Amino acid sequence: MENEKENLVFEPHKRGLMKTPLKDSTTNIVLAEIPPELGPLTTPTKPKEVSQGEPWTPTANLKMLISAVSPEIRSRDQKRGLFDNRSELPEAKDGLHEHLFGDEYEKSQPSRKEKSLGLLCHKFLARYPKYPNPAVNNDICLDEVAEELNVERRRIYDIVNVLESLHMVSRLAKNRYTWHGRHNLNKTLGTLKTVGEENKYAEQIMMIKKKEYEQEFDFIKSYSIEDHIIKSNAGHNGHPDVCFVELPGVEFRAASVNSRKDKSLRVMSQKFVMLFLVSTPQIVSLEIAAKILIGEDHVEDLDKSKFKTKIRRLYDIANVLSSLELIKKVHVTEERGRKPAFKWTGPEISPNTSGPSPVIPFLPSDLELRRSSKENCAKNLFSPRGKPNFTRHPSLIKLVKSIESDRRKINSAPSSPIKTNKAESSQNSASFPSKMAQLAAICKMQLEEQSSGPRKKVKVQLARSGHGNPAAPLETPANAELELTAPSLIQPLGVVPLIPSPLSSAVPVILPPAPSGPSYAIYLQPTQAQAMTPPQGLSPTICPTHSCKATGSTDTTDATTEKAPNGVTKASASAKPGSLLPGPERQGAKNRNREPAAERGLKRTGLLEDNGSKRKFKEDLKGLENVSATLFPSGYLIPLTQCSLGAESMLSSKENSGTLSPNHRIYSSPIAGVIPVTSSELTAVNFPSFHVTPLKLMVSPTSVAAVPVGNSPALTSSHPVPVQNPSSAIVNFTLQHLGLISPSVQVSASPGPGTIPVSPKIEAVSVIPENVGAQQGRATSYGSPVLGQNKLNGQSAAVTAAQQPVPVTPKGSQLVAESFFRTPGGPTKPTSSSCMDSDGANKTSLGTLFVPQRKLEVSTEDVH
DNA sequence: ACCTCCCGCCATGCT
DNA sequence: AGCATGGCGGGAGGT
Description:
Layout: H1 14-17, H2 25-33, H3 57-69, H4 71-80, H5 88-96, H6 105-108, H7 112-115, H8 117-126, E1 139-141, H9 142-149, H10 153-165, E2 169-173, E3 176-179, H11 185-198, H12 201-217, H13 225-238, H14 255-259, H15 265-278, E4 283-285, H16 286-297, H17 304-323, E5 327-333, E6 338-344, H18 366-382, H19 394-412, H20 422-430, H21 434-452, E7 456-459, H22 476-479, E8 481-484, E9 508-513, E10 519-523, H23 526-531, H24 546-554, H25 556-566, H26 582-592, H27 596-605, H28 612-628, E11 637-639, H29 640-645, H30 653-657, E12 671-673, H31 679-689, H32 701-710, H33 713-717, H34 728-738, E13 765-766, H35 772-781, H36 785-790, H37 796-799, H38 810-819, H39 840-848, E14 856-860
Parallel strand pairs: 13-14
Antiparallel strand pairs: 1-3, 2-3, 4-6, 5-6, 5-14, 7-8, 9-10, 10-11
Helix pairs in contact: 3-4, 3-8, 8-10, 8-17, 9-10, 10-15, 10-17, 11-15, 11-24, 12-13, 12-16, 13-16, 13-28, 15-17, 16-17, 18-20, 18-31, 19-21, 21-27, 21-31, 24-25, 24-39, 26-32, 27-28, 28-34, 32-34, 32-39, 34-39
The structure holds a DNA duplex.
């Protein structure tokens, strides 16, 4: 089957050439031995191949391209000899080292470097055009690729998962992925940025730095790292993590895939990218990234091992991102010492909205989407696997208990109407490990919230987008309402009408279009919002966050500026101005939601105790809570354009069909189906997904309102709707609580200043070298056309056009369409989380907060 | 000695 | 049961 396309396999001989085996010879051997070709391919195989040089060019071409593209790589290759092909390489290498052996082969193999994921990724990327012609089929058969590249399939998964997180590929079926190239990249990044802002990653980063800083200083140690982590994560409760953020066109179809989505490398990858997009210097150290990512889950146990594992994974992700030229390795020198870090070298993005697409579509989907999302969420939440950890943390434990009870309630509760998910729901209940706990917590919170205030239900409607619409599914249903407790959601910018206030959970929001692309819609799930509440007391983080970013992001210009203050900004380029708009809207919408949460939060806060310094934290937490956390759930973004198209999309339908059924058109619908879910359900769902992360939260409206103000207007802009009352005071308050602000620091009341950094320490980053400018260039470079062609697929021809970004076209559309929303299979859908958050106000605060950053020096190493 | 991170065991889940 | 996925962490190569 698969082979169809490519199969390049040929080259049998290659084996020798290639490398072989890896590690030990034995191993290698084995691998090598494996028959390469197997027709089938299924799995195992791995032939080696590859490289041989000449013959097959694709690889060779790729390499060349790659090398061309990146000097680094080139040099690297040269060293290795990659270029040549492996065949040569080995020898060469060997030569270097030892050619002695006869064996070489093994040896030849090489060094690990040659086997590095980064290199492998380059090879992989070389096979496909950066901007594939949508019309063509750009299918990727994993088996084939693995064979061609001579690697184990496992490695391919690593690459694909990361690419998938950027929506550069999407899973089509079992062994198949569709290559999208960079067409959606900017959108995706914009979306991720938005989500990252919502999650307050910037804030979290600041908190961590701050803490570190303090610690360094000392004392302040009062908080232990954990504490802060917690706090930061606190959000974690609060925040939900982000589930996987999906784009419209690209979704996961395969249910299976979805299942592990939560933890997956995919999510981690997105989060990691978010950190870059959100942080000012755009330099993220592995340590911080790991803490934040972990935070989500367990902060509690600081487990060292976990930390290590996380770091390992981050390296994996970083290697792929480096190959994509989105990041580059650098070292940050802090007081403490030098730490490995990565610098963003990708395009600057403005918050998602960018895009031009005007349309807004809407997703039809509602139903389906919802459904799917819901399902997904649910799954995630409950995932069976559960990790135990979750509960470990003492504080968490408490929460857990309560949560559990809540959970029960929840489960029992009927939530949603939808049935589709039933299954899921059932599932949900079942498993859950740690995540469950979290979920539970969330749920609990939600419950509380509800109790306090009834949830709101939202209905969402999506508008269809206009444009495209095609499908539009509007299904009414879709809109249906969701009840959400939570409020927030995002709204897309433009579009919409969304609902402001209420947010539905999965409401789709429309975002402004991205620059290039179409706009996306985000769906939020309500659940989170509810969930958000901080269960543990942790607080979710709330708000502020963005501020920084927001500002920055929002307007580009500002961003830069701002950054500057803080640190330097170097890199950022800002780019797109304008886009801001959306932001506000979203926020507004989101925010608006509920306040209640805040209230709750307050209450909860009580839990924590304050102690000196700690107090601070508490405060923060409270703040957070107050903020309210409403989190939201994740949502997805959908590109409008795509939406429209697609009727075809149905694709998945079959899978889903059950549930979905038929809508084929569905694309839209996937969600919709879901819709009905109760909020509670939703919530639940969301959480799971996130485990951790921060949350998005929503703040009460008021706060929200405030928020906007804070940052630059532009930023604010995002929230369109502002809440009505803004009390700056509130905001400040919140911020303080959140901890975002350091106690000492105060946020300025005025929102306006939000941005203001208090004393920022700014990081001085010295980035070393890198050329910024270059970066951009690079990015582009990649895709040389040539590559495309090579591909086996044959499609190649079409490819060339790299540029076409336009997938919109009908054909492309079709593709898109398909994907589009559909989620796959059913259930899976992803939800993404989105979180939107609240925003505004908080942000402001955030902005304010100062971050202690230390100065960093960055040195680049390129390496790799 | 530390930084990276390859490798592949094995759990998870879908067929 | 079998296969596709992918979490995970031991431990080794590189510096």
